[in-house]
Design a protein that fits this description.
Number of strands: 0
Function: May have a potential role in hypercalcemia of malignancy.
Shape: flat
Order of helices and strands: HH
Protein name: Chromosome 19 open reading frame 53
Organism: Aotus nancymaae
Helix content: 55-70%
Strand content: under 5%
Distance between the termini: 52 Å
Radius of gyration: 19 Å
Structural class: mainly alpha
Largest sheet: none
Family: Belongs to the UPF0390 family.
Number of helices: 2
Oligomer: single chain
Pfam families: DUF2462
């Protein structure tokens, strides 16, 4: 592995750890637990993406 690649992997790992810690701290201060949203089914995803691309009127 090249030294540059090791450094990049280390930076990514550190960033993920920081993001995880921030999310854990934020979720512990909320009155309700954070829930993961499930992706919509494939046939609904196409409809959702077209409706979300429309400009607000």
């Amino acid at each position: 592995m090249e030294p540059g690649a090791q450094r990049e992997n280390l930076e990514v790992g550190i960033r993920k750890k920081i993001e995880h810690d921030v999310m854990m701290k934020a979720s512990s201060s909320l009155p309700k637990k954070l829930a993961l949203l499930k992706a919509p089914a494939k046939k609904n995803r196409a409809a959702a993406s077209t409706s979300s691309n429309k400009a607000p009127s």
